[in-house]
Amino acid sequence: METKGQRIVQNVEDIPPLGHQEAGEMARVELERFIALLETLAEDDWLKPTYCTLWNVRQIVSHQAGAYAGFASGAEFRRQWGPPPQPKPGQMTVDAVNDRQVADRAQATPAELIAELRQVGSRAIANRQQIPAFIRGLRFDAEAFLYGWRPFDILRALRWPYGAITAGTMRLDYITDLIYTRDTWMHRMDICQATGREMILTDDHDGRMMALVMRDLADLLRDALNGQTVAYDIPGPGGGCWKMGPASTPAATIQIDLLYFNVLASGRMTPAEARAQGLVSISGNVEAANLALDHMSPLPY
Predict the structure, then answer these.
(1) Which pTM value belongs to this model?
(2) Residues 246-267: what's their mean pLDDT?
(3) Any idea what DSSP says for residue 177?
(4) In CA terms, which of 83, 235, 273, 282 is 20 to 30 Å from 126?
(5) If you write DSSP's letter for every residue of 68-95 in order, what string do you get?
(6) pLDDT digit string (tens) for 168-180?
């Protein structure tokens, strides 16, 4: 770690990867916070639009209930994914599955959706925790999984041996340990933004979530930065300052609120929109900062 004034700057290379047991603990915390948020919503909040422009609040919650249900039951997982519905042009297979989850719950009331999350959420997390290590460590072709899934295609897409992710591949536990929980976390942000609720943020949970996002962002930006070093300064609870690149001192620092950082990184907002709305503050080399901003999405959420 280094200091910038009184601000501690952490090198993303020093961020430890997510462990499997830790993943289960974080998933349980995030589910509790998500449900607690839903229980504060008024009737009209459920129909408010969100940064997920195709979904309102109720539809986001329908997707979350469906995603947890898919891991709570083998039969439900097979129903959702084998075979999944045909994606629309430009959609990924997972988008079509998400649409199915929302459609399945088109008539569900808010109380019914909360009750379903309570019923299936903990069971889904427990089932993900019970996936054997040799399965979690398998790598598969990301493009084939995201765009061309058919029943049992994952068996043909699996890549051996175990080990670090290579270009075009991802480990199964990247999805089951990290992305499922990050998805709930991001949708908690969506709902807070849509309804004006304050998001509960703590350094131990949300700060760790942010650090793991920064690990992914560093991988995404490695080629784009071409040897330059930038830092992202996220103020407030759950935030921090992280630098990526070889230099000890970043050429540029980008300051942005935690919510809007993730809205931007997830592709819900463009860099041009963020700049136009005054959501980004840059110090140092503006060209390097803009290069990082222009290549920082979309990250998996």
Answers:
(1) 0.92
(2) 97
(3) I
(4) 83
(5) HHHHH-HHHHHHHHSSPPPPPTT--HHH
(6) 577 889 999 999 9
Cα 10 to Cα 1: distance, rounded to the nearest angstrom: 5
Supply the Cα-derived Rg of the chain in whole angstroms.
19
User: Nearest to residue 301, comparing CAs of 213, 219, 199?
Assistant: 213
Separation CA 72–CA 120 (nearest Å): 6
Maximum separation of any 2 CA atoms in the chain, in Å: 55
pLDDT class of 163 with cuts at 50, 70, 90: very low
For each of the domains in the chain, give its residue range(s) and CATH number, in order of start: 20-131+180-195 (1.20.120.450), 206-294 (3.30.1050.10)
Q: Which of 212, 182, 253 is nearest to 18 (CA)?
A: 212
Q: What is the pLDDT of residues 116-134, one digit of tens each?
A: 999 999 999 999 999 999 8
**Does 206 have pLDDT greater than 90?**
yes
Q: At what angle do helices 180-195 and 57-72 cross, to 10 degrees?
A: 160
Kindly state the tokens that stand for 50.
């969100």
List the structure tokens of 108: 């569900």
| Cα atoms found within 13 Å of the Cα of residue 231, Cβ hemisphere only | 27
